[in-house]
Write a structure and sequence with these properties.
Largest sheet: 4 strands, antiparallel
Number of helices: 4
Strand order of the largest sheet: 1-2-3-12
Order of helices and strands: HHEEEHHEEEEEEEEE
Number of strands: 12
Strand content: 25-35%
Structural class: alpha+beta
Low-confidence stretches: 1-34
Shape: globular
Amino acid sequence: MKKLFILLFIVATCGVAGNSQNYQNFHFDVNGDGAVTAADVTAVYDYLLGNVPIIDGHEYVDLGLPSGTLWATMNIGASSPEDYGDYYAWGETTIKTDYTWDNYAWCNGYWDKLTKYCFQSQYGYNGFTDDLTELVPEDDAAYVNWGPNWRMPSKEQIQELVENCTWEWTTSNGVNGRLFTSNFNGAQLFLPAAGYRWSNVLKDGGTKGYYWGRTINVGGYSHYGSSIYLSSSNVTEWGQGRAYGYPIRPVRVSQ
């Protein structure tokens, strides 16, 4: 009965929103598209039926995490949860055929000649530092490719996922990967073992997975980005060279 009341109240709100001078006082943009319309009623209806909700055309799962972080169900460029999708160097927003330090956007040809996102002078070009330790939105592939509601996960969000879920090595529709199951609400998230790209070669596909976060691996080196690493034996947050091509699983924070 309570759910039905909520649904009917939002239907009524959507119906009068266009005529109400007090519309700005209501906050029922359920699907996050910037407007209160009949589409929000559909989003609530899907929620009540237990369907996966959609924001900005991208599905997500609510794992009940303390931070309110919502994880997308697919990688950028993927058409299903099992699809590997596209690969990006850390801090780059377009895909390419070769992934090397020679063509990495934020260095001058080598890993110890960084030109952006550097907090250690020994890794900066001519001693360069800027103390940027997290990607600004325009260098965040999730923000650029999916819109402002989405980001690459922070190091803390990666750690939260790993620490608050159980992770089972499994096969989904013929694809190996890790199935994360929330310790809070039992919701599940599948990350395929999509491997990585170096030069023009895909490596470790089907046996290991690597997913970029938006934070520099501050505990280590400026030329390392934080990432999720998964295999049949382990899941952890770790750092890796920023020029490698990794897939990206975006996140957003619940409203």
